[in-house]
Each structure stands twice: as structure tokens, then as C-alpha cells.
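Why run this: before we spend reagent on co-expression, it is cheaper to look at a predicted model of the complex and decide which construct boundaries make sense. The entries below are exactly what would go into the expression plan.
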Amino acid sequence: MLDSRKEKILKALVEEYIDTAQPVGSGAIALRSGVGVSPATIRNEMADLEAMGFVEQPHTSAGRVPSGRGYRHYVDQLMTVGRPAGPVMAGIRDLYDDRSVPVRALIRRTAGVLSEMTEYTALVEGPQLERATFKRLELIEVNGDHLLLVLLTGDGLFETRLLECPPHIPADYREAMVTSLNTRLAGRPLGNVASRDLESVRREFPRAVTLVESIRGTIEPGDSTESEGLFLGGTANMLKQPEFRRLEKVEGLLSLLEQGRILRDLLAESALAPVDISVTIGEENRYPQMRECSLVTAAYQAGGQTVGYIGILGPCRMRYSHVVGLITAVKESLGRELLRRRLA
Amino acid sequence: MLDSRKEKILKALVEEYIDTAQPVGSGAIALRSGVGVSPATIRNEMADLEAMGFVEQPHTSAGRVPSGRGYRHYVDQLMTVGRPAGPVMAGIRDLYDDRSVPVRALIRRTAGVLSEMTEYTALVEGPQLERATFKRLELIEVNGDHLLLVLLTGDGLFETRLLECPPHIPADYREAMVTSLNTRLAGRPLGNVASRDLESVRREFPRAVTLVESIRGTIEPGDSTESEGLFLGGTANMLKQPEFRRLEKVEGLLSLLEQGRILRDLLAESALAPVDISVTIGEENRYPQMRECSLVTAAYQAGGQTVGYIGILGPCRMRYSHVVGLITAVKESLGRELLRRRLA
DNA sequence: TCTGGCACTCGGCGGTCGAGAGTGCCAATC
DNA sequence: GATTGGCACTCTCGACCGCCGAGTGCCAGA
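The model came back. C-alpha cells follow.
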């Protein structure tokens, strides 16, 4: 589609624009691209690129700016992604070397570090109950009328919830019920605990129906309208980008970032794509508030299973190659660490 | 200090400015204050108020704007705080009527609702381990080499942590150690678990020293650099305020809001004041990024004990009476709900 | 096919100007 | 003595204007 000189020019143009945030003129490209022709020739090529929809002119007699299509081509074909530099890799490793830090904190820190390293906004979702499998549950007596429910999952996560304990249930009756639940549900994905199983437990232990009901409420993930386990880092970084100097643009964006539910869907959805790292550019985004942004996402795995998602949100004029390299490194380290914590 | 007419004028001026965000002229006050004198008279009074430092003039021939001192006098002496309207109170009650929602989610929602109701930024800190007392701990065997530590506190909170289990400790030896810990620490504030007690347990059960060490790591609150349990709501609301139209002002502010540690200190510190509700206005704030903001804070109690803090951050031109009324209502409801959840 | 030259276009910047809002002061009035 | 209407003055803000510079498109020549 594009001959090699046009590719070089487009690449130089995108990278120059990423650096400067200013429309790029033919002179700058002549210097930077290394194609060795004069600005006049570049101008002709740029007119072609514009006709093909890869670049745009903010107004006559300004330089060119990459269009959505231009960024897309850059991301898909032109950019070269490298491994992050040594010190950066070291920083990522350091993040995960303290084994006593709880998973939550790990995820939170990951978001913080990613946002610092990129100067964009980072979104990291940690392991979620609804993607885990049931391993075992346990009820701990707290006092006469409260029980603490501890739910252990296959990947070493656990969830605890305080339950009101219906009176007059003997401890051994309760234990028997728990044992029954444990054998029936073992290995089940929590996303769809068959209500059939719960039903039979309920029938088997009629005196504990309300208790079973409470347990169901905990292990069946709710409407997930709460954004537990999703962490943002560097939301204020958006304000540093010159494209968001206009307040009205950034306001809608920041409001969107407060909607945990939407962000989670966004992450999960775009990371579904059959590629390692998914990049959604400008107008490709579903939400109008994000039309001037790009979102780079990836799922991370522990033991071959997706356990969470990572995303970086920045302006379309994002340092894609840097971000993609960084996410790749982080997703691997994070996955590895979670696998390491997985219980035998 | 101020005669009653000046007070009326100052009150009208502050309230008009809160409504309009524009410097207030003598005409507007003549209409609003109800003192029944002409604008010319008001002008004379305003000149006095300016000399006394209660109001300022952005430039000659503009209206007046309240100074920090003016706001202070308004908050301390002039404003009338009422109970929030019926529907608002109902909204607050609704927030807490579902007993199955975990405390974390309750706190998060509180922040969300407060920010919506005020259109400012809400900060809510939930009950913290370090302010709780030790009740009991329990170790649950997860598998051969992991234990789940469950720590119950006096106010019905609990904390769980996964520990690596040192090998070759018989279960009954471990249980004995737990029992010993439980009797020694019962009722202790977690903020300062005496290391003397831990020391004797360590001596008593020499084969479990590493385990005791892990437990100590959990129950002694860490450096609390993590901002667990602090929730923000409506940070994007700051951008709606006309005083933050200048990007550079809001950027530092939003960055500050990302520093959980600082916010927690701020909340705890300002809510220490010997009043129910503390108001910190503009220049009174320690951090320069907050010099154009006011912070209204309160501690909330359950059973006479402070368990957390609430704060509302907005522009100096804040609707103080509304905010104070709202915080009062919320802190009572929230405290009541947490007390209700407290274990017998 | 490439290049240098050249006329053209447009946004940004600084300066000027008039309108409008609100003041301070003064003399008259209650 | 307090209050008031009148009036000149000050200052901001938006509109308007012209200049400058960057960058283009096009063309003729290499």
C-alpha cells in the first residue's frame, strides 16, 4: 500500500509529532527521516499521504498531523518495540520481590509504577473472584451470632465475609453442611456456581437455608458494580498532556475514569482481542470522552489462565512503542509473581 | 468587632459570591442583604470591611470578594447550618440499609454519594486496623505450606493474610501458640502491641519463631504508606469549579489527591481539633496546592470511639453550611451503622 | 523524478479601542 | 451624623486589526 519512502516519512512524522505535539513540517521530516531528499519532495509525498488518509492538516499552511489511520498503520506496521532498558526492568523486578506484600497492594503498586514510568494513566485489574475456581470454604465462629466465611480459590486468592449466623444451628450440623458444599463445589468456576448444587445442599440441610443463602451471596459474584480490585495510577498525568489543555475535554475523561464498572468492561473487552497487546486509537474508542485518547491493554496470565488486565491510557499521541514494551514486561512479571504465589 | 449591619453585609457578600463566583458589587448586596440601605451606603461599609481585612478587591473598580478572614468569620459566626432536606436524609439512610454489603464497600459508596451530593471531592477513611483492638486470631490450614491468618478486632473488623507456613510444626503445637497469643493480646490496641508479649510467646514456642514473626508483620500496622481503606469520590468535580479553570492550579491538586498517605495524615490531623466539624480555609492549609481550597473534616465514632474520618474538599468558595450539615448527617449515620455491625 | 524558488495562506501575537461594571468621593438631604 | 444620588474615574474584557513567520502548493528547470 505504501512504498518504503512513504513509510519512512510517515514513521518520522508520527514520531516527531509524538515528541513535539506540534504539526510537523516538511523540513523537520527531511532532517529526521533519513530518506535523503529535499523538503520539496517530502511535501509531494505528504500530499499523497494526506490524500490516502494517513495524515491531516489542521489548516492550510500548517504542518501535518497523523490521523487515526496514520497512528493505526504506525502501530501495526512501523514501530519497533524493544525491551525496556535495564534500570526499568530492574524497577519492575523490585516491585515484586517482597513476598509478604498482599496481592491487593501489589496490584496497586503496579498501577502506580506504570503511571510513573509512562507519565500516562495506568489501569490495573487484579485477580477477580468471578474468574477464579472454588477450592474450599470455611466458617469460623466469631461469637454467638456471627460467622466469618473464608473462601479459598484455586489460584491462592481468598475472600472473607462476615455473616450473621442464624441461631440454633448446632456446630456439627453446620460443619456437615460446609463439608457437603466443599465436595460439591470443588473446582467449580465461581463465575457460574450451578444453583443446582446449592439447591441440593439446601434440601439436604433444611435448617441452614438462610446460612446457605448468605454463602451464596458471597461466592456468587454480585453485579460487580463495585470496582473492587481495579486500581488507577496517575490520573493527574492526563492534565500534563498538551492536548488536554482545554479543560472541557479532560473533565469528561476524568469523570469516566471514576466509573469503575465501565473501566473494567473496557479492559476486559479490548484485551479479548486475539493479540497479546491490544491498542485502541482515538475514534476507535467506544466512549466519546476517550476519542482523543488511545488505550493500550493486555491480559496477564498465571499458569495459562487470564487472571487480570493491564491498561495504559494516554493521548493518541502516545509513545506506543515504549508503552507496549513496558506492558509486555510488566504483564509477564506480574503473571509470574502471581503464579509463584499460587498455592500448591 | 462587626456591628450587625456589617455582619449582614458580609454574610450576603459571601453567599452571593458562593453562588455566582463573581466579585460582588454594592448593588447586588443592596438587593440581597435586606438591610434596606442604598448601594452608596453599602459601598462605605464595604470599604470598612476591606480595611478590616474581611473582603478584598481583585482590582480597583471591581466588586469585592471574601478574604480568608472573611470566610473564617462567615464559617465561625454567620452561617446557619440546617439538617439536610428530607430526600437527602433518605438517600443517606438508603446507603446503609443493606447489611450484607461489606464495610469497605460501604465506605467507598459513602465517598461516592458525598461527592455527588456536594459536587465537590469527598474523602472517606474507613476503620483502620491500627486504631482497633486485638480480639482474637485464628490460623486456617490452606495446604501443606500455607496458613491463612484471620485477625478479629474488637469492633467487628477482621483482616486476613496468607502466610507461608514453616514446615515441621505440629498442629497442636501451633494451636497452643495461637491460644497463648490470644490470651496475651486480647483487648490490646493494635497500634502498639507490646513487643514484650510477642517476645515471651516467641520464647515459649521456640519452634514457631518465624511464624510468630509473620504474625507480627500482619498485626502490627506497617508504615501505612499504602492507602488501604481511604476512598475518594468525585475528584473530577474539582474541574467543574470556575476557580480551577487554570490547568496549572488543578494539576498539582490532583497529584496531591493521589498521595494516599498525605491525605490520611491531613484528615486525621484536622479532625483532631476539639470541634465536631473542622473547617480549614484556603491559606490555612499546609500544602500549597490546596491554598485555593477549603477542607471540611470530621471524625466519626462508633461507640464513643473514633473509627474513621470524612472530608470534603472544594474551593474556598464552598457551600459551607450545606457541606457541614451533610457531613454531620453522614458521620452520624455511618457511625451508627458501624456500631450496629460491631460484634457483641 | 527531484529540486529550488516563489507567491500565497493562515494562525498567533501584540496593540488599540470602546463598552460596561463598579468604585470613591462630594455635596445635598433627612 | 448618617444616608443618598450624582458623577468622574478606573479597570477588565472582548472585538478588531495588522504584522510576522511557518509552511504549503505549484512551477519551471535540472
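The domain at 130-219 of chain A is CATH 3.30.390.60 (Enolase-like; domain 1). The beta strands of chain A are 55-56, 65-66, 121-125, 134-143, 146-153, 158-164, 230-233, 277-281, 293-302, 305-315. Bring this page to Monday's planning discussion.
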